[in-house]
Amino acid sequence: MQFWVVQTLNSLALGGLLFLLSSGFSLIFGLMRIANLTHGAFFMLGAYIGVTFMKNGVTNLWLAALLGGLCIALIGGLFERFVLRALAGNSQGQVLVTLGVSLIVSDLCLIIWGGDPIPIPTPEGLRLPLKVLDFTFPAYRLVVVVIAIATALGLYFLIERTRLGAMIRAGVDDMQMARAVGIPVSRLFTTVFCLGAALAGMGGIIGGPILSAYPGLDADMLPLALIVVILGGVGSLVGAFVGSFIIGFVYTFGIALLPDLAYVILFLPMIVVIAFRPRGLFGKVSA
Amino acid sequence: MGKAQKIWWGILAVAMVGLPFAAGEFYVNLLSQIFIAVIFAAALNLLVGYGGLTSLGHASFLGVAAYISAWLFLKMGWSHLVIAPIAIIGTTLLACAFGWISLRATGLGFLMLTLALSQVLWGLGYRWVGVTDGDNGLRGLTRPQPFGIDLENATNFYFFALIVTAVALMLIARFVHSPFGAALRGTRDQPRRMSALGYNVWMVRWLTFVYSGFWVAVAGMLFIYYNKYIHPSSLSLTASAEALLAVIAGGAGTLGGPVVGAVIVVLLKNYVSSYVERWNMLLGFVFVFIVIFMPEGLVPGVKRLWLRFFVKPVVVPPEAAAGKEGQP
Fold first, then answer.
1. Tell me, what CATH number does A119's domain have?
2. A172-175 contacts at long range (C-beta below 8 A, 24 or more positions apart)
3. Do B236 and A93 touch (CB under 8 A)?
4. pLDDT in tens, A161-172
5. What percentage of chain A has pLDDT greater than the value 90?
6. Residue A283 falls within a domain, yes or no?
7. Which domain, by its residues, includes A259?
8. Which of A172, A230, A233, B317 is the most exposed place for a label (fewest CB within 10 A)?
9. Is the model's pTM score more than 0.95?
């Protein structure tokens, strides 16, 4: 029984991290029609920058996550403004550039931080497992789930209830009309890209105590995010949320029960959804 | 084919056949590697260039063909003669399945699906230790001996790879120039019109995917014979990206482009990795450079410059130009 409880919590925690990663990917894709393949690299870079902050005076993980997220947002913003913007309208070129930059970033991380995994310490006070009835819960994972749900609510509020959100929705639905009625689509692009990058970077640090920072983290996370987005539907926040937790469960239990074939099991929900709903569970726009 | 063209092809053929007798073993082996990359890139180009479908997961087929071959040889002890068709057919069947899944979408969705599928296989290569030996890779293979010719010899292998590459390129060119190839280009440029004309756009794309997968499987066989070793990194995104870079750098949608691109990528990789271990970064920079500054690729780019500077512009009457449009 303890096994199932812990694995369930692990699944939820992974699902939460995947949501932080894939919500940004999905928003960027929905608005800008860019499959941002640097997203995994942003996640990894966030983890590395966060751990660097923590080794240099910022002892609080949450503060490090905030600072790291800001750094990644800045990097993402510069990348969008000066590189992706030069290729506006050429979505295949943009994808290839994001691919190239992701290769550059992951190699840079290898140069700067070396090849050994860097553990990120769990914050004080969350290290002890929580005891409820007869079960023990790793407290930090619970907090990760709570953060993911809070982020999801925050994003939902942002998209559905604010002026900025209304503009984003307008851009997703019909870019040309949005432009025509005076929505500054160009600034919107940069904002959304920064937001998505920041979420990925923060996800990297918050996931640090569970995953640690290691070379190849980007290549491990990106496919999971892709599968989440394919499953949930591009441009859909609800889809990213549901997809994240589905993949979190499938992957965690797959690893626990059939370690050799966990990756094949990842296929299954994706194939079932693709077969019956090519746009994903909640997708409105076709990819 | 014009007379000048025939002469150039003749020179090229003589050079390719004569080269192993003039150059050292290092260069012979380098060319063998180039041949493998050329088949890979030319096959990928069918989808990327002629089909307008950018696949970021084609290393799957190279890796899977190599893994099937290595596994059957090492664990089952079968002979190369039996293994080769099984590996190629098995990989082609995988391409049938992957094509069916990926072609549920087009454009970026297709790209994401091919990437996700190939990354799943890559993860499997690392984790399914019972079959793939994980990070150690499968080693201890031999090269086959068709008709008693020992391919362990670098020159023999060179000619073997040369023949396979020549056949592959001829059949790929044949495919492109066939009516089916014209239909494929039609589905790239005007899918809705093609559909209105009665073409099954999905089927055209799927068959191309399978055909492309078949040739990548052939490249995978050459790869495993050449290296006698297979590691999960052959299934990685970097491996797919290298092939895609070869296609795009050379010029997608041209027959010569992927060949030139593959030569450049292999030379770059060998040259750079002998000095610094920063291949990924260089690959990234070349990607960004090509996409931003030379989106059409080297072959069409150089051709355009050549025509501008060395060939007098010919004024084509409008009717003739209009009539030419439909021709491949």
1. 1.10.3470
2. A172/A30, A172/A31, A172/A235, A172/A284, A172/A285
3. no
4. 999 888 888 888
5. 24
6. no
7. 2-276
8. B317
9. no
